[in-house]
Write a structure and sequence with these properties.
Length: 659
């Protein structure tokens, strides 16, 4: 088993599938950390004793040997008794960790930073960005007070700061000055003594068209260095200020295309700010248009767009103009493919505002505005059991078709899609919606909704077991996403690749689990908590149930998120607590009306079969019957529990129903 060690944060280890290795107590981790610091060299037992204890106990040497033995069992669980250890070896008077150069994150980080120095700017920026993501906190975080870790912690911290600055230099070389500013701003705030960081920040601001801000940064750096650190700015900072004031030619190299775009943006924004009064209502409408574009950038952009959208709607309502409010709400036609909202509170506020605005619009006219409000209600109330969402979706579609407005129809169809989960087995209906979205959007130049159509079809074809068709839609979505800079699309297509591997049945469970974990890493920071929370544990649960594996590994603690009611009975059964599992199962509600409905019903069915809960078996059989031709959970494009028909057959046999 390959083991990877992590010291860029709390000391830990992962197995070949990406799962944590149980390292036991703090002294076990201290032994491991001390051996990593030694970089494959032997550390005598006497030195380990001195490093582990200020006042060693009488049997300290025996304790160290016990720690080493436990670590060996954890790191090489499949090693035969009395076979020599491969990783944590005995050598002369002590021990050494013979990890490979790629098996310690700190060692990989060092090599990545060194390699980046010889790469062209684009590759260097990408390599450094990836390497910086390996950090989970301060190096050797558990052992900050240990003398043996101090020098290594300082060296790695300095190397990390160096990597941040070199990444900024690479971005500047690529003409991405505006992109470099936020990271550099945070960097100098945390490490104000680093003159090179101040220089890079000022240079980035200047190249982004913000000369005044660049000079202000240099003044701030001078004040801080003189008043707080007692040193004068070096020649690089002093020279940069002179060069900026004199618009030195070497500060403004020929801009790359993206840098030129940044300058156009900055100048246009400045002209807009000068020309449009600060209280003008057109500013509010323009802001929401920007938020719509911001939402598809993913990560912080999506979260910020959601937050500011609610504020914009509230501001519009305060003006008492229902027509303006209708435009503010309706212009945010950001496509949605996941059926659980990211922030239920925000969604509820938007729905309430849309309902109030609908009631306040004049009785005559404003059909397009009404359709957009109705589509918004349909989208933001997805997963709810109220009949209001489906009615709003149908009415929005009717109006959009009558008006012949392609963009309005695409928005309405998104709402219709979100309301096609009132029962199981509706993958063919959603496939038809996706096909219309693809055709409509391609004909009218709406790439974002065209991507939505491909993702909807990807999900539907997965549910129907047509993975060749799903492959085509995944590839089409990725092509469009690359062309139009839509990074969130990759989250869904990477998850689909893991599902594809899972459904093929040719890879071992450990390999599939690793693929799911890799896909889950793409979710971190994507700004989609409604998708992220509990999804990886649910995917692994489905995988393990299908393969007859233990639901949880020893020592594994899982946040099931919203899926806890359906996972809990199986977890209890896995632990041999049948009575508790039966009681837990009786409290399980019907699954939400969403893309994972079939999968959750199947989990409930497996638990019901195990404990003989006839009532739950009957409910599950009735709910799953319409989806007999589908793969359970695969309609999400993310995970699967295999053919629904197999679960139905097991339920029918247990209930004594016809096959």
């Amino acid at each position: 088993m390959r083991v990877v060690f992590g010291v860029l944060g709390p000391v830990t280890a992962w197995d070949g599938a990406g799962g944590p290795v149980a390292l036991k107590g703090p002294r076990h981790r201290a032994v491991l950390a001390r051996l990593v610091v030694a970089r494959r060299r032997v550390v005598p037992v006497a030195r380990l004793v001195d490093d582990l204890w200020e006042d060693p106990p009488p049997d300290a040497v025996g304790a160290v040997r016990t720690f080493v033995a436990a670590l060996r069992r954890a790191l090489e669980p499949e090693r035969p008794p009395r076979a020599p250890a491969r990783l944590l070896v005995t050598d002369g008077p002590g021990y050494a960790l013979r990890a490979g150069p790629d098996e310690v994150d700190a060692w990989r980080f060092e090599r990545a930073v060194a390699a980046a120095a010889a790469l062209p700017p684009e590759e260097a920026a990408a390599r450094l960005a990836e390497a910086l993501e390996w950090w989970r906190g301060p190096a050797y975080a558990d052992f900050a007070d240990r003398p043996w870790a101090r020098a290594e912690r300082s060296r790695l911290a300095e190397l990390r700061l160096h990597a941040v600055e070199r990444r900024a230099e690479a971005r500047l070389a690529l003409g991405l000055a505006a992109e470099a500013v936020p990271d550099l701003d945070a960097h100098v705030a945390e490490h104000p003594w680093r003159e090179d960081s101040w220089r890079l920040l000022a240079l980035a601001l200047y190249r982004a068209g913000r000369q005044g801000d660049a000079l202000a940064v240099l003044r701030r750096a001078r004040t801080l260095l003189v008043e707080q650190l007692g040193v004068d700015p070096g020649p690089a900072l002093r020279g940069l200020e002179t060069d900026i004031l004199g618009h030195a030619a070497h500060l403004a190299p020929s801009p790359a295309p993206r840098e030129a775009a940044e300058r156009v943006w900055a100048r246009t924004a400045a002209a807009y700010a000068r020309a449009v009064p600060s209280g003008a209502r057109v500013r509010l409408e323009s802001t929401v248009g920007l938020l719509r574009d911001l939402a598809v950038t993913g990560g912080g952009g999506l979260e910020a767009a959601r937050e500011h959208r609610v504020a914009a709607v509230a501001a519009a309502e305060e003006l008492g103009d229902p027509e303006l409010t209708a435009r503010i709400i309706g212009v945010y036609d950001v496509p949605a493919v996941w059926t659980r909202v990211d922030d239920p509170g925000q969604a509820a506020r938007v729905v309430a505002a849309a309902e109030r605005t609908l009631a306040s619009l004049p009785a005559a006219g404003h059909d397009a505005a009404r359709a957009r409000l109705l589509a918004t209600i349909a989208l933001e109330s997805r997963g709810a059991s109220s009949p209001r969402g489906p009615r709003a979706a149908r009415r929005a579609e009717e109006i959009a078709r009558r008006l012949g407005d392609p963009a309005l129809l695409a928005f309405a169809l998104n709402g219709v899609f979100m309301q096609t989960f009132h029962r199981t087995g509706l993958a063919p209906r959603r496939d038809g919606i996706g096909a219309e979205l693809v055709d409509l959007s391609a004909r009218h130049g709406m790439p974002v909704h065209e991507v939505l159509g491909h993702l909807v079809r990807l999900q539907a074809r997965c549910a129907l077991g047509d993975f060749a068709g799903a492959d085509r839609h995944a590839a089409a979505a990725d092509r469009l996403a690359g062309r139009h800079e839509l990074p969130l699309v990759g989250v869904f297509t990477r998850w689909y690749a893991a599902l594809r591997l899972d459904a093929a049945g040719t890879a071992p469970a450990a390999g599939v689990e690793a693929a799911y974990r890799s896909a889950a890493a793409r979710l971190e920071g994507a700004g989609m908590p409604g998708l992220e929370r509990g999804l990886l544990p649910l995917a692994l649960l489905c995988l393990r149930v299908r393969h007859g594996l233990p639901v949880l590994r020893t020592g594994e603690h899982t946040d099931w998120g919203p899926y806890e009611p359906w996972a809990r009975p199986l977890v209890l059964l896995d632990r041999g607590r049948r009575g508790e599992a039966a009681r837990s199962l009786r409290a399980v509600p019907d699954p939400p009306r969403d893309l994972l409905c079939e999968a959750l019903w199947c989990l409930a069915a497996r638990a019901a079969l195990a404990v003989g809960d006839r009532g739950t078996m009957e409910r599950a059989h009735a709910a799953l019957a319409p989806a007999a031709a589908e793969l359970a959970g695969a309609g999400s494009g993310l995970l699967t529990l295999g053919p629904v028909s197999g679960h139905l057959a097991d339920l029918a046999a247990a209930l004594g129903l016809p096959g």
